[in-house]
Amino acid sequence: MLHLGVNIDHVATLRQARYATMLNSPNAEPILLEAARAAEHAGAYSITIHLRADRRHIQDEDVYLMKNKLRIKLNLEMGNTPDILAIALKVKPDFVCLVPESREEITTEGGLDVVTHHIALKETTQRLQANGTKVSFFVDPIPAHIEFACKCGADMIELHTGTFANHFDAERLEEVSRLKIAAEMAHQAGIQVNAGHGLTTRNVRDLFAVPHLAELNIGHSLVSRAISVGLVQSVEEMLEVMSEYSLGGAIA
Ligand code: PXP
User: Fold this and answer.
1) For residues 120 and 53, what is the distance between their CA atoms, to the nearest angstrom?
2) Is residue 250 one of the residues assigned to a domain?
3) DSSP state string for 45-104
4) Domain range holding 15?
5) Is the dihedral of CA 135, 139, 145, 147 positive or negative?
6) CB atoms < 10 A from the CB of 90, how many?
7) Of all atoms in ligand 1, which is nearest to the CA of residue 10?
8) In Å, how far from its chain's centre is CA 57?
């Protein structure tokens, strides 16, 4: 069964747009925990939040709240920096997904350069794992990065599907081929294969040619659809499409 991680960053984006300086106001909305509960209710496997260095959406208090109140797994996305790592070590989320991060980007724009940063990534991975958190690397489908993710001891990779999502026709098919090779490589090495970025109910079926997928992490499209139908229905619609996937891998 293909699991769904619901990324609720953009629920916080909407809250920050109005209440960034008044987070304790009784008026502050939308309420992150309500969104997480809706996703839980609809059948999500995990909740993902990205604590960015610029705190543009998720705040430190949100991370602690999720850790204390969630009934499903918590996946913390983060850049590999000492201050965010210190928070992750304190919070002990179920999973950490290490991502590259730059202040200028609108959203995460690509996978980690695992080859260049393997020493620092390995050290962070070991510290998190020793603290009870499983570690995922967000990577482009490039064999060298998968190879180094294995060398660093990652429990999982999350394949970056942004290029897949933003290309169509023959170019999308070419990206699917790269994703298939990467998924196969990681699976052979015993690493759980997840995927995410830019996925929607309209494009996700094209990803189903990729084997061994255990979990998809999806945010923007689910929160966008929720404006029309509510988050419970939005998540249920995605899970309905995801139930068609038949090449799934095991959860680590
Ligand atoms: N996975 C990772 C590592 C991400 O950085 C993001 C975006 O925050 C997502 C998945 C979800 O992407 P989207 O919001 O496009 O569904």
Assistant:
1) 18
2) no
3) SEEEEE--TT-SS--HHHHHHHHHH-SSEEEEEE-S-HHHHHHHHHH--SEEEE----TT
4) 3-242
5) positive
6) 12
7) 14
8) 15
Structure-derived torsion over alpha carbons of residues 11, 91, 39, 136, reported in degrees to the nearest 10 = 100
pTM as predicted:
0.96
Ligand 1 centre distance from Cα of residue 120 (Å): 23
CATH of the domain at 13: 3.20.20.70
197 within a domain of the structure (yes/no): yes
Contacts of 30 (CB under 8 A, 6+ apart): 11, 14, 15
Split into its structural domains, the chain has a count of 1
Q: pLDDT tens digits, residue range 214-248?
A: 999 999 999 999 999 999 999 999 999 999 999 87
Integer angstrom CA distances of residue 162 from 79, 94, 104, 200, 249: 18, 25, 17, 11, 21
User: pLDDT of 112-165, one tens digit each?
Assistant: 999 999 999 999 999 999 999 999 999 999 999 999 999 999 999 999 999 999
**CB-based contact 91:131 (threshold 8 Å):** no
**Any domain includes 247:** no
Task: Among 7, 105, 221, 224, name the best residue to mutate to test ligand 1's pocket (greatest count of ligand atoms within 8 A of Cβ).
Answer: 7
Q: Which atom of ligand 1 is nearest to the CA of 222?
A: 16
Rounded to the nearest angstrom, the gap between the alpha carbon of residue 176 and the centroid of all alpha carbons in its chain is 19
Choosing from 77, 101, 158, 175, the catalytic residue is 77
